[in-house]
Amino acid sequence: MDHILLVTGFFILIVTFFATEKSLHLLELIFGWLLVVILHDAYFTLVSLNLKMVVPSMRLSDFFVRIFAHKFITPTIVVWAVDLMNSSRLARHKWSWYLFFTALLILLNMMLRRLDILKDASIWEPWVTFSKAPLLIAAAWLAMLAYRRVLGKDGALHEFR
Amino acid sequence: MSFVEFLIQKKNVLFTSACLIVAYTIIWRLRKALPASVSMIMMLFSLDLAFSLDNTLGLPPFDFYNTNIIPSFNGPDALTLLLYPAFGFLFTYFYYRFRISGVAITGYILLWAVLGVCFEALNVQFDVFQYKGWRLTYSFYIYLLVQTLMVLMYNFIRETFVRAKSTTNMRSKSQWHAGSKRY
Predict the structure, then answer these.
(1) How far apart are CA A136 and CA B29, in angstroms?
(2) What does the pLDDT average to over B67-80?
(3) A158 φ, ψ to 5°?
(4) Does B67 or B5 have the greater pLDDT score?
(5) Once rounded to an integer, what is the mean pLDDT over residues B118-144?
(6) What are the sequence ranges of the domains in chain A?
(7) Which of A116, A118, B52, B133 is 20 to 30 A off residue A70, Cα-Cα?
(8) Residues of B with CB under 8 A from a CB of A
């Protein structure tokens, strides 16, 4: 039941993301999405395979939920955060979106643990979970800013917003 | 340890390094053929697919193969991963350069799938991959799927880029005629 609720939540999030208007260019959104998947993959490989801090569940249903969360939900949240931060004019609005989406990412991570899709090893440090979310959004934001300059140089962006 | 033993022990790293040097030298010479924003997305997409497949097929519950002998992420693994964007770039470059379209797309995908399998077989010989139940035939199917996705992605990105560029040019012209000082 918990899995069904979680996956339903995932679908609502994705449909809402695609249904709302974006301030970023489509190429920027795609670039951001791909980048987040790579960063998240690198992070997950390090903590699960090298540091053995996280043990992914061996059940096939859990495996698919984890892949869906890592490849679709995490990038959606991060790209959405960057898009709303980009469209906000005031700094406090940018910070509010940043904190809101950081909290959302942490919540997603905690739900995956609550449902035993990811299991913490005894050496797991909670600060690693909490530091990943803000760093991921900040890294994606910086990289997408750099990509915007490349798009501008290629003549595909009307103006730098 | 003699020099020959060292070479044998590190043959996976040496092979990957040699491939990287060759691939990125070619890319450096061809880098201006495609817009940088398009190349970056195609290279990222290629890396994404490879990394994602490694993280799903190479890790439990499947765990079909190891990369670079040690079953953890290390320096040689990072080098191996750097090869995928290079292949993504070359795949896109030749697709664009030879204006592949229609039935030729099928032939192009098949050709790259065969090239991919041959290159992977070389990688297996040099201990870059160690199979644990995986087979080259499975790789062939994976390459067919991945390269089809690459073609679809490139066509979509190209259309989006051309549309964006033409919109920008139209806006520039209209503002130019209106006497705008923004340009």
Answers:
(1) 33
(2) 84
(3) -65, -45
(4) B67
(5) 93
(6) 25-149
(7) B133
(8) 35-38, 40-41, 44-45, 47-48, 51-52, 55-56, 59-61, 71-73, 157, 160-161, 164-165, 167-169, 171-172, 182
- Per DSSP, the three-state class of B146 is helix
* pLDDT tens-digit readout, A56-74: 888 888 888 999 999 999 9
Closest to B52 in 3D by CA, of A42, A151, A159: A42
pLDDT band at B172 (very low <50, low <70, confident <90, very high): low
Residue A15 has φ and ψ, to the nearest 5°, of -65, -45
What tokens appear for B17 in the block? Answer: 């390094």
For chain B, give every domain's residue range. 3-164
Extract the tokens encoding B91.
């795949």
Tell me which of B38, B73, B156, B159 to substitute to probe the interface with A (most A C-beta atoms closer than 10 Å).
Answer: B73
Q: Which residue has the tokens 């398009």?
A: B38
Partner B, chain A 35-74, Cβ-Cβ below 8 Å: 35, 37-38, 41-42, 44-46, 48-50, 56, 58-60, 63, 67, 71
8 Å CB contact between A140 and A29: no
The backbone torsions φ and ψ at residue B29, rounded to the nearest 5 degrees and listed phi first, read -75, -30
Complex ipTM, two decimals?
Answer: 0.89
Could you report the per-residue pLDDT of A78-134, keeping only the tens digit for each?
999 999 999 998 999 999 999 999 999 999 988 998 888 888 777 767 777 778 899
CB B16 within 8 A of CB B128: yes
The CA-CA-CA angle for residues A12, A91, A144, to 5°, reads 60
- Give chain B positions within 8 Å (CB) of A146: none
